[in-house]
Amino acid sequence: MTAAPAMTSCTRPTPSGRVYNFSAGPAGMPEPVLRQLQEDLWDLRGSGIGIMEHSHRGTVYDAINAEAHEWCRKAGRVPADWEVILMPGGATVQQAYLPFNFLPAGRTADYPDTGIWTTKAISEGRKAAAMLGAHIHVAFEGSRLKYTRVPKDGEMSQTPNAAYLHYCSNNTVFGTRYPTTPVTTAPLVCDASSEYFARPVDWSRHVMLYGGGQKNLGPSGISLVLVQKDFLATANPALPTMMSFAAHAAGESRLNTPPTFGVHAMGLMFRWIAAQGGPEALERAAIDKSGLLYDAIDSSNGFYTGLAERWCRSFMNVSFRLPTPELDARFVKEAAAQGMDGLTGHRDAGGVRASIYSAFPREGCVALAQFMRDFAGRTS
Ligand SMILES: *Cc1c(COP(=O)(O)O)cnc(C)c1O
Questions:
Q1: For a Cys staple, 249 with which of 22, 79, 83, 136, CB 3.0–4.6 Å?
Q2: What is the pLDDT of residues 215-273, one digit of tens each?
Q3: pLDDT digits 0-9 by tens, 271-315
């Protein structure tokens, strides 16, 4: 084997010798989960076979699969009349399947546009709608506001009798978040990718949530789809099997060979989330952690400017700018040298973005807030 290219040397500020990883996703995972996975790669539960090598129809994997679903319900407080589906592919896969499942010919689905990911959902939705003889209505045009906020109550233009309303509760790129569940009479579908189980869900107001794993739930390449059973019963029954949420639910998330490692990793993440106290506790922690960074922004006399309006700031993705793009770049580079990685803003938003999902340690936010104050002090 040839040696991997050497990483740029930097301080390793954490007790375990790793860096603070502010990546937007795939993102850092909790140390105990990673240690367990290391072990399970080699020998899963004394079977003499690693997790990636077990048959997905064998009894060892039967337990792994069943436990991942059970712990998902426990960790996320998922009601009994909802299905838990662990599906291959990321959130964008679910965005593509959504209209095929739930948008009948002649009907309209509403999509408020609040950032890159809803824009993608809309463009995918339109392609599907064209095939289905249905329509996508953009219920809010956030691009006009440069995505600095989400719609306020009553601000969306909603279609009467819409098949569903699709929204993204936390906008990963611009760092905005709906402070409360949008008000609608349409069945409500949420892209929860960057906030999954990091905030309590008002189950009675939703019919479906989906999201990729790699932000708050662990591995990439697998998504969590939660869907209310009565709503699922209304899905298009004529779809190719792999596109059908109902088929995945009936097949207990293993219609074909599932991403077995990902399912196990998510199962361990659900246990970790439950041990932290679930979504309520993780939301409190997120308010505290993001508050450290927002305080550093707000007390900088305008050196740092937040991208989002204050009332809808994200607790997961803290986006801000320095006075010039050159300073943004210098900030990111100097932070990296101190062991704070992944702070470059999304290519479409620019600036700096600190993604601090559930597993991100509070000490990392303390360190970044201190660095922000130091940097502003010696630069402005
Ligand atoms: C990351 C992200 C996606 C894309 O997820 P993939 O797993 O890469 O398909 C979609 N929506 C939101 C809100 C995201 O944060």
A1: 83
A2: 999 999 999 999 999 999 999 999 999 999 999 999 999 999 999 999 999 999 999 99
A3: 999 999 999 999 999 999 999 999 999 999 999 999 999 999 999
Q: Please give the number of the atom of ligand 1 that sits closest to the Cα of 220.
A: 7
In degrees and rounded to multiples of 5, residue 375 shows phi and psi of -60, -45
Torsion of CA 216, 218, 220, 224, to 10 degrees: -70
Q: Quick check: CB of 121 below 6 Å from ligand 1?
A: no
**DSSP-derived 3-state class of residue 136:** strand
Pocket test for ligand 1, best of 98, 166, 194, 357 (most atoms within 8 A of CB): 194
**What's the predicted TM-score (pTM) here?**
0.96
Distance CA 217, CA 193 (A): 9
CA of 212 to the centre of ligand 1 (A): 6
Just list the catalytic residues: 117, 191, 215
**In 3-state terms, what secondary structure has residue 188?**
strand
Exposure letters 316-339 (e unless 16+ CB within 10 A, then b):
bbbbbbbeeeebbeebbeebbebb
CA–CA dist 200, 351 (Å, integer): 30
How many CB atoms sit inside 10 A of residue 56's CB? 16
- Please list, in sequence order, all residues whose beta carbon lies within 8 angstroms of the beta carbon of residue 29, skipping any fewer than 6 positions away: 218, 265, 269, 359
Of the pLDDT bands very low, low, confident and very high (cuts 50, 70, 90), residue 32 is very high
Structural domains of the chain in order of their starting residue, each with its CATH number: 40-275 (3.40.640.10), 278-379 (3.90.1150.10)
